[in-house]
Write a structure and sequence with these properties.
- With 235 residues, the protein is α/β, with parallel strands linked by helices.
- It folds into two domains: 146 residues, 3-Layer(aba) Sandwich (Rossmann fold), CATH 3.40.50; 80 residues.
- Helix content is 43%, strand content 9%.
- It contains nine helices and six strands.
- A six-stranded parallel β-sheet has the order 3-2-1-4-5-6.
- The radius of gyration is 18 Å and the shape is globular.
């Protein structure tokens, strides 16, 4: 059975980055922005981590967006939902100040374009912890745009997160593909290579490798952007 869709991770894959540096810069900027309308920085920082945890543990009973804002309103009160628009505006504008901590590889756009030109679907399977505007901005940092993808996952259209296999099954259902008809490209062994158990092909991009458990990566097709490009051409 041939490959019909290629799923790409974003952070550390299509968008090169040091994950820790990115999170540090992003959290610092958002916390400072919310402090301007009265949010205590320490409490808000705690809320961010709890909100992320709620999304990662989501059992599919609600969207990740609802999971996050349930934590937010539990900590700050239901009336703070009025500030959601303020947060969305942050992601639209100030969030772009985080771009300099990320890298750039022109092959990201080249590879996605070649995937589409070959008749395959390109799917952005980025952990859905962000609202659409934040994900769309990060795409642009990588030289890409929303139009480059058949589907991209955000916190409002997803009910699971990586490494939950249901996150990937939800994508497969939306694009109408079987696992064996897909290739997952990512840089995180735990989050991205989990799809192998579903029967999906994998490629581990090693430019910004995350391998917390020091797994032997030789069992996965792996390598640089150039090697990924060559591997996709063999499919």
């Amino acid at each position: 059975m041939g490959i019909r869709a290629i799923l790409f991770d974003l952070d550390g894959t299509l968008l090169p980055m040091d994950q820790d540096e990115f999170v540090k810069a992003y959290f610092k900027l958002l916390t400072a922005r919310l402090a301007t309308i009265g949010y205590d920085p320490q409490k808000f920082g705690e809320c961010l981590w709890k909100g992320v945890g709620a999304m990662v543990k989501n059992d599919g009973s609600r969207t990740n967006e609802d999971a996050f804002w349930a934590v937010f309103t539990d900590m700050f009160g239901k009336e703070t939902m009025k500030d959601k628009a303020f947060v969305d505006e942050f992601y639209k504008v100030e969030f772009n100040q985080v771009q300099p901590v990320c890298g750039f590889n022109p092959l990201a756009k080249t590879i996605v374009d070649e995937v589409k030109a070959s008749g395959k679907m390109a799917v952005l399977a980025t952990n859905p912890l962000f609202p659409p505007v934040a994900t769309e901005n990060r795409m642009r940092w990588a030289g890409l745009s929303p139009d480059d993808f058949h589907l991209y996952t955000t916190y409002d259209n997803s009910r699971y997160c990586k490494p939950n296999a249901n996150y990937y099954l939800e994508i497969l259902d939306k694009i109408g593909c079987k696992p064996e008809e897909c290739l997952m490209v990512g840089n995180d062994v735990d989050d991205d290579m989990v799809v192998e158990a579903l029967g999906m092909k994998t490629f581990l991009l090693t430019d910004c490798l995350i391998n917390k458990n020091e797994v032997d990566i030789s069992k996965y097709p792996n390598g640089s952007f150039e090697e990924l490009r060559g591997y996709i051409k063999t499919l």
